[in-house]
């Protein structure tokens, strides 16, 4: 987990380029340009550094979407980062990453999340410790096996050069991570998730993270291109906003990135840009048997092998 040759500048350059590329591609798909909100922490704040949030609201295709880059440093790791590593409590840190969530308006088009990040823990007189994390996952409202298999196939292929064991491990990790324990149900169909990756060294761990980031558009664009013109009505829209409630519940209760940002006094607007713009909850509701809504639960929100 230590490496004196790591190139933090190369990671920063990659992440800012990835954010720009994804924003330009998805903005062109939507026909709406992402607005750019650059920000910097003030000298009296707990965190140092800054970032840039690219936000799209009320687009032609995306009802809301955000792609954030942040590069911040602090004098001590927040509890969400050191809970599993008590030996790191009290260390300073630098955290940088790109995180995105896109919420299409059409219920037949899935919400998507992707994140790639580097965290470095520092202590005077000792070598810095680093680890990479990230992944991507898909949250459909109406299930399509073709889409699920495509998404997971791209995830698998992005990890294949770094070991045949990574996709099964990271898929299982994703299935277990994006799970609403209080609901006893998955958030979506998963994808891949990894954290604390430092082996076999900085360069290869960075290369793996880069491969995941570079594969995002290949995983998501063909799906929304297929589904963007699928007709829908009020009933489908109501089900979409209901299922979006699960997204909100997970992000506010379980998501480590959200907790890390809030516990470290991060920028609230950037942290909560993942929230969908229109959400509903219903009391003790279940879909009628035999409907497409019921099939989402029975056939898609269960851990299964897609590729």
Tell me briefly what this model is.
This protein is of the alpha+beta class. The chain has helices spanning 8-30, 79-82, 145-159, 166-177, 202-227, 234-253, 256-263, 268-271, 292-300; strands spanning 35-40, 48-57, 62-74, 92-104, 111-123, 126-139, 179-180, 185-186, 190-197. The chain is globular.
Give me the secondary-structure topology:
Elements: H1 8-30, E1 35-40, E2 48-57, E3 62-74, H2 79-82, E4 92-104, E5 111-123, E6 126-139, H3 145-159, H4 166-177, E7 179-180, E8 185-186, E9 190-197, H5 202-227, H6 234-253, H7 256-263, H8 268-271, H9 292-300
Antiparallel strand pairs: 1-2, 2-3, 3-4, 4-5, 5-6, 6-9, 7-8
Helix pairs in contact: 1-5, 3-5
Pfam family, one: Coprogen_oxidas
Site (Important for dimerization): 182
Binding site for substrate: 99, 115-117
Would you give an account of this structure?
With 307 residues, this protein is α+β, with helices and mostly antiparallel strands. It is globular, with a radius of gyration of 19 Å. Strands 1-2-3-4-5-6-9 form a seven-stranded antiparallel β-sheet. Strands 7-8 form a two-stranded antiparallel sheet. Helices cover 39% and strands 26% of the residues. It has a single domain (8-300), classed as oxygen-dependent coproporphyrinogen oxidase (3-Layer(aba) Sandwich), CATH 3.40.1500.10. Strand 1 (35-40) and strand 2 form a beta hairpin. The chain contains nine helices and nine strands. It has helices at residues 8-30, 79-82, 145-159, 166-177, 202-227, 234-253, 256-263, 268-271, 292-300; strands at 35-40, 48-57, 62-74, 92-104, 111-123, 126-139, 179-180, 185-186, 190-197. The two termini are 32 Å apart.
């Amino acid at each position: 987990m230590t490496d004196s040759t790591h190139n933090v500048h190369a990671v920063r350059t990659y992440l800012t380029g990835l954010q720009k590329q994804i924003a330009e591609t998805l903005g062109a798909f939507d026909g709406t340009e992402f607005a750019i909100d650059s920000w910097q922490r003030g000298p009296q704040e707990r965190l140092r550094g800054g970032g840039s949030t690219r936000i799209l609201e009320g687009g032609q295709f995306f009802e809301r979407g955000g792609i954030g880059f942040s590069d911040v440093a602090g004098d001590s790791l927040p509890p969400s980062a050191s809970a599993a590593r008590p030996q790191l409590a009290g260390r300073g840190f630098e955290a940088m990453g790109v995180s995105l969530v896109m919420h299409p308006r059409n219920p037949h088009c899935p919400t998507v999340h992707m994140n790639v990040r580097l965290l470095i823990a520092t202590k005077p007189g000792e070598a810095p410790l680093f680890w990479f994390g990230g992944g991507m996952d898909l949250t459909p409202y109406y299930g399509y096996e073709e889409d699920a298999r495509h998404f997971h196939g791209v995830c698998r292929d992005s990890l294949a050069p770094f070991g045949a064991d990574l996709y099964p491990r990271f898929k299982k990790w994703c299935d277990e991570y994006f799970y609403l324990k209080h609901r006893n149900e998955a958030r979506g169909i998963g994808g891949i998730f990894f954290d604390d990756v430092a082996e076999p060294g900085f360069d290869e761990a960075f290369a793996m993270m880069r491969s995941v980031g570079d594969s995002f558009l290949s995983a998501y664009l063909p799906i929304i291109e297929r589904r963007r013109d699928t007709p829908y009505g009020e009933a489908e829209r109501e089900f979409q906003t209901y299922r979006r409630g699960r997204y909100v519940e997970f992000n506010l209760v379980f998501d480590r990135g959200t907790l890390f940002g809030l516990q470290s006094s991060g920028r609230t607007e950037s942290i909560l840009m993942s929230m969908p713009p229109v959400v509903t909850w219903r009391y003790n509701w279940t879909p009628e048997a035999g409907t497409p809504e019921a099939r989402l639960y029975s056939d898609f929100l269960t851990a299964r092998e897609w590729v």
